[in-house]
Amino acid sequence: xxxxxxxxxxxxxxxxxxxxxxxxxxxxxxxxxxxxxxxxxxxxxxxxxxxxxxxxxxxxxxxxxxxxxxxxxxxxxxx
Length: 79
Known about the structure:
Blueprint: H1 2-13, E1 18-21, H2 30-33, H3 42-46, H4 52-55, E2 57-58, E3 64-67
């Protein structure tokens, strides 16, 4: 989590547009790192409950966006 967040920040600070996706459906933490809510996120997007624009979050770093994990499913492997 820390490595992914720092790498994403570094790339964004160099002018690259970055979308960081939290695919950890057991213990997601990226929403905490960027101080944002976890839902809606990837799980809702995969289940067609929201569109992409609703699931993406702007972070405090220019050019860096986050797609949090979303609501944790009972059976993550089903997603």
